[in-house]
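G., the chain you wanted modeled:
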Amino acid sequence: MIGRPVPLGVVAILVLAGPGAWTTPASDYAWHFPADHWAHPDYRNEWWYFTGHLTPPGRAAPRFAYQFTVFRVGVVPAAPPLSSTWTASAIFMGHAALIDLDTGRHTFSEVLYRAGSVLAGFNPAPDPLVAWSRAPAGTDGRWTLRWNGTAFDLAMTDRTAGFALTLSTTPARPRVFQAPNGYSRKAASGPWASLYYSFPRLTTEGWVVRGRDTVRVTGQSWMDKEFGSNQLPPHQIGWDWYSLQLDDGTDIMLYVLRRADGSTDYRHATVVTPTGRVTFPPPERWSAQARGTWHSPSTNTTYPAGWTVRVAGRTLAIEPLVADQENVSALVPDLFYWEGAVVIREADRPVGRGFVELTGYGTASRPAI
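Predicted structure as tokens:
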């Protein structure tokens, strides 16, 4: 889950394309795997989202947490019939962040390119290279997302930001739909929805480059894939989203969609038990309440920080591992959100780790999805 406005030029083209040009998600969507791991150009928006916790050899606890996200922002359902290498039907936007849990340092990187044959692209199935782009200006190399036969490999590099990731993943448990048949509603009624699935546990290995140091790492990741054309109704301003991996094998996904006044408009939960049983607790059976706040000196935005989550008969305390995990774009005006690694406690004992994403705070701008 992610969101803030895309560039004004992209918005203008999207308006020209018209809302009726895009496919609307349907509750009876016929899934086809592995093909659905690739891009869906007839839907307006799509993203592949990875977060995780990574541990170097010889350590008991992770040293790093990371985020890597590829967004496809549709411009038109099909590229215009022009004989130009600059013709594009979509925009490639990539975000990556590395959190050094030893020092508390959070570093963010981004790319933004038109998708075509030169700067970035989304390849059709079964090409193993699902999506790619050039690295940020001043850095040789590419950002890549590849299908490795069972899950995804990802890579990014940014010389200016001073970090790089090269990670390979394999499923530690099966893919999960985050709603019945993956039809994820964003409102109680109407067409507001996405098609949404996850790999909630991916065994991860690879390399982290931090400055001059190259560190071998292993760990665990979470992967989300969503696509749609009309996810949020006009009165919603943003969301709080949680991915929680408990040490006993329980996986929990929650999202709370907010109105402009901060009140809850719609929310959803998915719980995967240690045996793999998937349930969708109704809203009256779970809650997520903030216990504090954090104020960003970069954007003058106040975010919730620390939560009490009651779900599946458990009371969990969710605590940020680092206070400042805000991603602030230098390429897109007013694009910023908090994407943070958290520790999960139960009865004052650590029982897991996860990530929380907070969008729509600080301004009147709503996520452009």
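Confidence is low (pLDDT under 50) at residues 2-17.

Shout if anything looks off.
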